[in-house]
Hints:
The protein is mainly α. Helix content is 69%, strand content 4%. It contains 14 helices and 3 strands. It has helices at 4-36, 67-84, 88-99, 102-107, 114-145, 151-172, 178-200, 202-205, 209-226, 262-278, 283-292, 298-322, 329-349, 355-379; strands at 238-243, 248-252, 255-259. A 3-stranded antiparallel sheet has the order 1-2-3, covered by helices on one side. The longest helix has 33 residues, at 4-36. The protein is elongated and about 70 Å long.
Amino acid sequence: MKNWKWTLPVGLLAIVAIALWFEPAFADKLSDAIAKAPVGSEPGQIPADPNAVKGFLGIPGSPVVNPILAFCWAVWVGWIFSTVGAFGGVMSGVGHMSVFGFGSYAGSFKKTAPELGKVITDSIKASNQFLVGLSAAISSFNYLKMKRLVLPLAITLGLGSLIGAWLAQELSAGKLDFKSYQGYFGLFVLLLGCWLFYETTPAGQSKKQTAKKAAQAFEAAAKKIKCGESVDASCDGLHITQFTLSKCAFTFYGVPFQFNPLIPFLGGIVISAVAAFLGVGGGFLLVPFLTSVTQLPMYLAAGTSALAVLVSMVTSIITLLSKGTPIEWHFIGLEMLGIAVGSFVGPMTSKYFSDVWLKRLFIVLSAYVGIGYLLAGFFSIKLPGI
């Protein structure tokens, strides 16, 4: 446990060192793409005026973001990811694509300078993953301290994520235009919302008895602690009782769980491959996987998902950087400050939200974001805020 104090800062420094190592490649790839873009004042063109304001990635005429807005949005992203263990990448994507306007800017180059559009799209994906990666690191640390992270399950998922994240970026980096990326992004989020809605129906709930029992035990213990009452130490938090290559067993507030480690390993490969392709954390797929396949309550799924997402994000970011993807470092640094604030607050406030309400929040966000990006990406129809 003590090693975690050093794991986070050392890991972040390692990512920065790798980024600086690859920086000359960023500059060359972006400069080459800008040089091939047409010059003019229309959308999809680079301004001829040498004094034109440089915004995102230092490109003349690109969107300039209010730093206060960027910080506040990052706090929201950090809070929601650390609270439900998911949706950080999706909300990061919404911020970068819609709130800050990077998406429409990248899309404007689809016909005039497709190479520049793909470079910006890859940068948006990497930016999303930096934010989610930091939030995942902080959340993992906090949930581990609170005994709400199933470490064997997270490690098994993480090992699968290493393979899936590397494979997806190797195959997709530099090959996806923004409109296609936006459409696929929306489609996956919408499917997720449909699946979560099914889980709230009587048919879906009938398969969740173990998770429901554990959630009720946790909520009852939290109420007792809040009222100053004592809680039985033998039933307090998470306890691993057995871990082998074929079986992992544990209890959470006295409720027993068990799973075959091979299943989350295979799930980690598939989920991280999809998440890396979309440029998100994958928590929005990991959480349903954990609550459905391993029957975890949301209180455990959030922390366990966070550590698996961290492994996937580090792998995916390093792969994108090795492909020469440019990063707006000053902007990302500001957003990461907001992520840190939101990620510290989330685990402390999550116990005040019921399991049911967390899932309903998840469904509403999935439906709106999914439909919005699906329509915008594949049919050029825009919903408010998308």
